[in-house]
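Q: Given only this backbone (110 positions), what sequence would you predict?
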């Protein structure tokens, strides 16, 4: 059974703990087995690449490393601030929808 997380791929999130606290970015990937997410522009690490052939040079590549899912909060589309997420059934479709707990209108996440 897949786990339900408060963030999904494509969400805009803010880091609330760690070295990158306060940074915002888009979720590129969710790693459910490790409880981690990869956020664009956050937790940058440098990877040293060896040359793979005679004519290729070695170089240093910057890439995003995973960050624990508990250290990020989604940004409310209405207020622009980090918010907790609630779930409720949509009366029309009967599906679970995520909504912002901080927003006075309880705006839904798309």
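A: Predicted residues:
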């Amino acid at each position: 059974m897949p786990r339900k997380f408060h963030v999904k791929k494509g969400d805009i999130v803010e880091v609330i703990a760690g070295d990158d606290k306060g940074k915002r970015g888009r979720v590129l990937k969710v790693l459910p087995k490790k409880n981690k997410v990869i956020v664009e522009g956050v937790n940058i690490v440098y990877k040293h690449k060896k040359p793979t052939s005679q004519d290729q040079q070695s170089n240093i590549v910057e890439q995003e490393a995973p960050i624990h899912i508990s250290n990020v909060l989604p940004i409310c589309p209405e207020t622009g601030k980090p918010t907790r997420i609630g779930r409720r059934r949509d009366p029309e479709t009967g599906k679970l929808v995520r909504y912002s707990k901080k927003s006075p209108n309880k705006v839904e996440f798309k």
